Amino acid sequence: MVLPEDPKYALKKVDEIREMVDNDLGFQQAPLMCYSRTKTLLFISNDKKVVGCLIAEHIQWGYRVIEEKLPVIRSEEEKVRFERQKAWCCSTLPEPAICGISRIWVFSMMRRKKIASRMIECLRSNFIYGSYLSKEEIAFSDPTPDGKLFATQYCGTGQFLVYNFINGQNST
Ligand code: COA
Protein backbone atom coordinates (compact mmCIF):
# COMPACT_ATOMS: atom_id res chain seq x y z
CA MET A 1 0.00 0.00 0.00
CA VAL A 2 1.36 3.40 -0.97
CA LEU A 3 0.17 6.45 0.96
CA PRO A 4 0.50 10.15 0.01
CA GLU A 5 3.10 10.70 2.74
CA ASP A 6 5.38 7.93 1.44
CA PRO A 7 8.79 8.71 -0.12
CA LYS A 8 8.86 10.51 -3.43
CA TYR A 9 10.22 7.53 -5.35
CA ALA A 10 7.17 5.47 -4.34
CA LEU A 11 4.75 8.24 -5.32
CA LYS A 12 6.54 8.66 -8.65
CA LYS A 13 6.16 4.94 -9.34
CA VAL A 14 2.46 5.11 -8.43
CA ASP A 15 2.03 8.04 -10.84
CA GLU A 16 3.67 6.06 -13.64
CA ILE A 17 1.45 3.06 -12.95
CA ARG A 18 -1.68 5.25 -12.80
CA GLU A 19 -0.81 6.74 -16.18
CA MET A 20 -0.35 3.27 -17.67
CA VAL A 21 -3.65 2.09 -16.13
CA ASP A 22 -5.48 5.14 -17.50
CA ASN A 23 -4.09 4.43 -20.97
CA ASP A 24 -5.18 0.82 -20.68
CA LEU A 25 -8.67 1.84 -19.61
CA GLY A 26 -8.69 3.85 -22.82
CA PHE A 27 -10.64 6.93 -21.81
CA GLN A 28 -10.22 9.97 -19.65
CA GLN A 29 -10.51 8.96 -16.02
CA ALA A 30 -12.05 11.25 -13.44
CA PRO A 31 -9.37 13.09 -11.49
CA LEU A 32 -8.87 12.00 -7.90
CA MET A 33 -10.95 14.00 -5.47
CA CYS A 34 -8.39 14.67 -2.80
CA TYR A 35 -4.95 13.44 -3.71
CA SER A 36 -3.66 13.73 -0.13
CA ARG A 37 -6.16 11.12 1.06
CA THR A 38 -5.82 8.44 -1.59
CA LYS A 39 -4.51 4.97 -0.90
CA THR A 40 -2.92 2.90 -3.65
CA LEU A 41 -2.63 -0.85 -3.46
CA LEU A 42 -0.22 -2.62 -5.76
CA PHE A 43 -0.28 -6.38 -6.33
CA ILE A 44 3.29 -7.55 -6.88
CA SER A 45 3.92 -10.93 -8.51
CA ASN A 46 6.58 -13.40 -7.34
CA ASP A 47 8.86 -12.13 -10.10
CA LYS A 48 8.45 -8.61 -8.67
CA LYS A 49 6.19 -7.20 -11.39
CA VAL A 50 3.24 -4.92 -10.72
CA VAL A 51 0.28 -6.98 -11.94
CA GLY A 52 -2.51 -5.21 -10.12
CA CYS A 53 -3.34 -1.71 -9.00
CA LEU A 54 -6.21 -0.28 -6.99
CA ILE A 55 -6.55 3.43 -6.19
CA ALA A 56 -9.06 4.32 -3.49
CA GLU A 57 -10.26 7.65 -2.19
CA HIS A 58 -12.59 8.97 0.49
CA ILE A 59 -16.09 9.72 -0.71
CA GLN A 60 -19.33 10.65 0.98
CA TRP A 61 -21.97 9.39 -1.39
CA GLY A 62 -22.59 6.62 -3.85
CA TYR A 63 -25.46 5.95 -6.24
CA ARG A 64 -26.99 2.57 -6.78
CA VAL A 65 -26.80 0.96 -10.22
CA ILE A 66 -30.25 0.22 -11.56
CA GLU A 67 -30.35 -3.32 -12.81
CA GLU A 68 -31.89 -3.75 -16.18
CA LYS A 69 -34.01 -6.77 -16.83
CA LEU A 70 -31.95 -9.24 -18.81
CA PRO A 71 -33.46 -10.73 -21.92
CA VAL A 72 -33.81 -14.51 -21.79
CA ILE A 73 -30.18 -15.54 -21.71
CA ARG A 74 -29.10 -19.08 -21.99
CA SER A 75 -25.38 -19.15 -21.36
CA GLU A 76 -22.85 -17.30 -19.23
CA GLU A 77 -21.13 -16.25 -22.47
CA GLU A 78 -24.31 -14.58 -23.72
CA LYS A 79 -24.72 -12.79 -20.40
CA VAL A 80 -21.17 -11.39 -20.59
CA ARG A 81 -21.72 -10.30 -24.21
CA PHE A 82 -24.96 -8.56 -23.24
CA GLU A 83 -23.32 -6.84 -20.25
CA ARG A 84 -20.50 -5.57 -22.45
CA GLN A 85 -22.85 -4.01 -24.99
CA LYS A 86 -25.34 -2.23 -22.83
CA ALA A 87 -25.04 1.11 -21.09
CA TRP A 88 -25.75 1.22 -17.39
CA CYS A 89 -28.00 3.53 -15.39
CA CYS A 90 -27.93 4.50 -11.75
CA SER A 91 -30.20 6.09 -9.23
CA THR A 92 -29.92 9.83 -8.55
CA LEU A 93 -30.56 9.21 -4.87
CA PRO A 94 -27.31 9.58 -2.92
CA GLU A 95 -26.51 6.91 -0.35
CA PRO A 96 -23.76 7.27 2.23
CA ALA A 97 -20.50 5.62 1.25
CA ILE A 98 -16.95 5.77 2.60
CA CYS A 99 -14.53 4.40 0.06
CA GLY A 100 -14.45 5.11 -3.66
CA ILE A 101 -12.54 2.80 -5.96
CA SER A 102 -11.19 5.27 -8.45
CA ARG A 103 -9.18 2.75 -10.48
CA ILE A 104 -8.92 -1.02 -10.36
CA TRP A 105 -6.76 -2.81 -12.86
CA VAL A 106 -5.13 -6.23 -13.31
CA PHE A 107 -2.56 -7.10 -15.99
CA SER A 108 -4.44 -8.77 -18.87
CA MET A 109 -2.57 -12.10 -18.67
CA MET A 110 -3.31 -12.39 -14.95
CA ARG A 111 -7.05 -11.73 -14.96
CA ARG A 112 -9.62 -14.13 -13.50
CA LYS A 113 -7.20 -15.28 -10.80
CA LYS A 114 -8.93 -13.35 -8.01
CA ILE A 115 -6.26 -10.64 -7.91
CA ALA A 116 -8.82 -7.81 -8.00
CA SER A 117 -10.89 -9.59 -5.33
CA ARG A 118 -7.83 -9.92 -3.10
CA MET A 119 -6.92 -6.26 -3.58
CA ILE A 120 -10.42 -5.21 -2.49
CA GLU A 121 -10.29 -7.52 0.53
CA CYS A 122 -7.01 -5.88 1.48
CA LEU A 123 -8.50 -2.42 0.89
CA ARG A 124 -11.47 -3.20 3.10
CA SER A 125 -9.24 -4.06 6.04
CA ASN A 126 -6.77 -1.22 5.51
CA PHE A 127 -8.74 1.79 4.29
CA ILE A 128 -9.79 2.92 7.76
CA TYR A 129 -7.55 1.96 10.61
CA GLY A 130 -9.15 -0.60 12.93
CA SER A 131 -12.25 -1.20 10.87
CA TYR A 132 -13.29 -3.55 8.09
CA LEU A 133 -15.43 -1.85 5.46
CA SER A 134 -18.60 -3.57 4.36
CA LYS A 135 -19.32 -3.99 0.66
CA GLU A 136 -22.11 -1.43 1.11
CA GLU A 137 -19.59 1.25 2.04
CA ILE A 138 -17.64 0.90 -1.21
CA ALA A 139 -18.49 2.52 -4.55
CA PHE A 140 -16.90 2.10 -7.98
CA SER A 141 -16.01 5.07 -10.16
CA ASP A 142 -17.78 4.96 -13.53
CA PRO A 143 -17.26 1.21 -14.09
CA THR A 144 -16.13 -0.28 -17.38
CA PRO A 145 -17.94 -3.41 -18.69
CA ASP A 146 -15.22 -5.57 -17.08
CA GLY A 147 -15.53 -3.53 -13.88
CA LYS A 148 -19.28 -3.99 -13.86
CA LEU A 149 -19.04 -7.77 -14.32
CA PHE A 150 -16.45 -7.93 -11.57
CA ALA A 151 -18.33 -5.63 -9.15
CA THR A 152 -21.58 -7.54 -9.69
CA GLN A 153 -19.84 -10.76 -8.77
CA TYR A 154 -17.83 -9.32 -5.89
CA CYS A 155 -20.71 -7.40 -4.32
CA GLY A 156 -23.13 -10.25 -4.91
CA THR A 157 -25.56 -7.90 -6.65
CA GLY A 158 -25.82 -5.86 -9.83
CA GLN A 159 -27.08 -2.99 -7.67
CA PHE A 160 -23.70 -1.96 -6.29
CA LEU A 161 -22.78 1.68 -5.63
CA VAL A 162 -21.10 3.92 -8.21
CA TYR A 163 -19.84 7.50 -8.21
CA ASN A 164 -18.15 9.91 -10.64
CA PHE A 165 -20.40 8.84 -13.45
CA ILE A 166 -20.60 10.93 -16.57
CA ASN A 167 -23.56 13.31 -16.88
CA GLY A 168 -24.47 12.70 -13.28
CA GLN A 169 -24.17 14.54 -10.06
CA ASN A 170 -20.77 14.38 -8.54
CA SER A 171 -20.41 12.86 -5.13
CA THR A 172 -18.54 15.73 -3.49
N1 COA B 1 -16.03 -11.13 -17.30
C1 COA B 1 -16.92 -11.81 -16.54
N2 COA B 1 -16.82 -11.94 -15.19
C2 COA B 1 -15.77 -11.34 -14.61
C3 COA B 1 -14.80 -10.60 -15.33
C4 COA B 1 -14.96 -10.50 -16.75
N3 COA B 1 -14.09 -9.82 -17.51
N4 COA B 1 -13.86 -10.13 -14.49
C5 COA B 1 -14.23 -10.56 -13.25
N5 COA B 1 -15.38 -11.29 -13.32
C6 COA B 1 -16.12 -11.91 -12.21
C7 COA B 1 -15.97 -13.42 -12.26
O1 COA B 1 -17.13 -13.99 -11.71
C8 COA B 1 -14.76 -13.65 -11.36
O2 COA B 1 -14.75 -14.93 -10.76
P1 COA B 1 -14.38 -16.23 -11.66
O3 COA B 1 -13.15 -15.89 -12.43
O4 COA B 1 -14.17 -17.30 -10.61
O5 COA B 1 -15.57 -16.48 -12.56
C9 COA B 1 -14.96 -12.62 -10.27
O6 COA B 1 -15.55 -11.48 -10.95
C10 COA B 1 -13.67 -12.21 -9.56
O7 COA B 1 -12.77 -11.69 -10.51
P2 COA B 1 -11.22 -11.45 -10.20
O8 COA B 1 -10.40 -12.62 -10.71
O9 COA B 1 -11.03 -11.10 -8.78
O10 COA B 1 -10.95 -10.16 -11.11
P3 COA B 1 -9.64 -9.82 -11.97
O11 COA B 1 -8.42 -10.00 -11.12
O12 COA B 1 -9.70 -10.56 -13.24
O13 COA B 1 -9.82 -8.26 -12.23
C11 COA B 1 -10.72 -6.35 -13.41
C12 COA B 1 -11.03 -7.69 -12.69
C13 COA B 1 -12.04 -5.67 -13.78
C14 COA B 1 -9.94 -5.43 -12.48
C15 COA B 1 -9.88 -6.69 -14.70
O14 COA B 1 -10.70 -7.34 -15.62
C16 COA B 1 -9.26 -5.48 -15.38
O15 COA B 1 -8.21 -5.00 -14.97
N6 COA B 1 -9.92 -4.95 -16.43
C17 COA B 1 -9.39 -3.81 -17.16
C18 COA B 1 -9.49 -2.56 -16.35
C19 COA B 1 -10.90 -2.27 -15.94
O16 COA B 1 -11.82 -2.31 -16.72
N7 COA B 1 -11.08 -1.96 -14.65
C20 COA B 1 -12.36 -1.72 -14.03
C21 COA B 1 -12.54 -0.28 -13.77
S1 COA B 1 -14.08 -0.01 -12.94
TrEMBL record:
PANTHER family: N-ACETYLTRANSFERASE ECO (PTHR45884), N-ACETYLTRANSFERASE ESCO1 (PTHR45884:SF1). InterPro entries: ESCO_Acetyltransf_dom. GO terms for biological process: mitotic sister chromatid cohesion. Residues 95-163 form the N-acetyltransferase ESCO acetyl-transferase domain. Transmembrane segments: none annotated. This is N-acetyltransferase ESCO acetyl-transferase domain-containing protein. GO terms for cellular component: chromatin; nucleus. It holds the Pfam family Acetyltransf_13. It comes from the Eukaryota. GO terms for molecular function: protein-lysine-acetyltransferase activity.
